[in-house]
Design brief:
The structure holds two protein chains of two kinds.
Chain A (H helix, E strand, L loop, with lengths): L2 H17 L3 H21 L3 H25 L11 H18 L11 H17 L5 H9 L1 H22 L2 H11 L1
Chain B lengths: L1 H5 L1 H19 L3 H23 L26 H32 L4 H13 L1
Classes of the chains: A mainly alpha, B mainly alpha.
C-alpha cells in the first residue's frame, strides 16, 4: 500500500505550494508535484496518463512557469488573512466528501464504471483494432473524433498565445523610436 | 469510519482539490492562481484515474503469449478514464499556456500581476 504514502507526499507538496511566497520555489515544487502524481498514476495502472503527466506536467508546464517568472515579479506580496475563501473551501470540501461516501469503494471490480463501456472496450479491442494497448486503441480509433477536437483546442490555444505575445519585440522597438 | 477508509482515494483527492481551490481564490498573485488551477486539475485527473483502478488488475495493455496472440483473460484496469484524462492533461497545458501569456500581457500593461493593485488602477482610471 504505497499509494496512501505518495498521497501524503502529494498533499505536503500542495500545502508547501500554498504557503510559500517565493514563486521560483513554487514553480519548482509544482514540477515535483507533477512527478509524484505521475508515480501515483503508474500505481493506479494508468501508465499512459503517467508518462504524459511526467513529460507535460513536470517538464513543459514548469518551463512555461519559469518563462513567465522571468517577465513578472519573483515573489508574491504578503497579504492579510481572509476568512471568506477558507469558509468556502471547507464547506465545498465537506459537501464533496459527504456526497462521495455513497460511491463504490476504491478498486471495486463490480463498480458501475467497470461493468458497462469499459468491459465492452476491453472485449472488442483485440479483434476490432488489433492493438495491444487498449488506451491507444480507444484514443485513436473509437474516440478518434474526440482526439481531433483536442487538436483543434490546442491549435486555438496556440493561435491565442501567438496573438497575445507575438510581435512584442516589434512594438517595443516602435516605442523606443518614439522616445 | 471504515466508510471513509474505503474511500481514502476520494477523500485525499478532495482535500487536494480544495488546496488548489483555496490557492486560486485566496491569492492575489496571478501566477500563483494559475499554479492553483493546475493543482485543482491534477486532483480531478487523479479522481478519474482512481475510479478506473480494479483491485488485482493490471495496466490495460494485452500481454502477448508465445504464439503471438493477445492474452485477454486477466483483469485489466478500466482504460476509459485513462483516455479521457490524457485529453484533459493536454488541453490543460494548452489553457495554462494561454493563461500565462495573458499574465505576461497584464504585466506589460499594468506593471504588476497582483490582482488588487490591478483593480485599484482600473478603479482610479474609471473615476478620473
Amino acid at each position: 500500500m504505497i499509494e496512501p504514502l505518495l498521497f501524503v507526499l502529494l498533499l505536503a507538496l500542495a500545502v508547501a505550494i500554498l504557503k510559500l511566497k517565493d514563486l521560483f520555489a513554487i514553480a519548482m515544487l509544482s514540477g515535483a508535484f507533477s512527478l509524484v502524481s505521475a508515480g501515483l498514476f503508474t500505481l493506479m495502472d494508468a501508465v499512459d496518463v503517467a508518462f504524459t503527466e511526467a513529460a507535460v506536467g513536470a517538464g513543459f508546464t514548469t518551463v512555461l512557469f519559469l518563462g513567465t517568472l522571468a517577465v513578472t515579479a519573483n515573489t508574491e506580496r504578503q497579504q492579510p488573512f481572509r476568512l471568506g475563501p477558507l469558509l468556502v473551501v471547507l464547506v465545498v470540501g465537506a459537501v464533496l466528501i459527504w456526497a462521495g461516501l455513497d460511491a463504490p469503494l476504491y478498486g471495486d471490480p463490480t463498480a458501475p464504471v467497470h461493468t458497462h463501456l469499459g468491459a465492452e472496450f476491453i472485449g472488442r479491442a483485440p479483434s476490432e483494432i488489433d492493438m495491444p494497448n487498449i488506451v491507444t486503441a480507444v484514443l485513436a480509433s473509437y474516440r478518434g473524433y474526440d482526439t481531433m477536437g483536442e487538436t483543434a483546442v490546442i491549435f486555438t490555444a496556440g493561435v491565442g498565445v501567438m496573438l497575445l505575445l507575438g510581435g512584442r519585440k516589434g512594438r517595443d522597438l516602435d516605442e523606443e523610436d518614439q522616445d | 469510519m471504515s466508510e471513509v477508509l474505503g474511500h481514502w482515494n476520494q477523500v485525499a483527492v478532495i482535500v487536494l482539490m480544495m488546496i488548489g481551490l483555496y490557492t486560486v481564490i485566496s491569492s492575489d498573485n496571478l501566477v500563483k492562481k494559475v499554479i492553483g488551477l493546475n493543482l485543482f486539475q491534477v486532483a480531478v485527473i487523479m479522481f478519474y484515474v482512481s475510479m478506473g483502478k480494479v483491485a488485482g488488475g493490471t495496466a490495460p495493455i494485452f500481454p502477448v503469449d508465445e504464439a503471438g496472440n493477445y492474452v485477454t483473460d486477466i483483469a485489466f484496469s478500466n482504460p476509459l478514464p485513462h483516455v479521457l484524462m490524457l485529453t484533459a492533461i493536454v488541453v490543460g497545458v494548452a489553457t495554462t499556456a494561454l493563461g500565462l501569456s495573458l499574465v505576461i500581457r497584464i504585466q506589460e500593461a499594468y506593471g504588476t500581476v497582483e490582482e488588487d493593485e490591478i483593480l485599484d488602477m482600473d478603479h482610479r482610471e474609471a473615476h478620473v
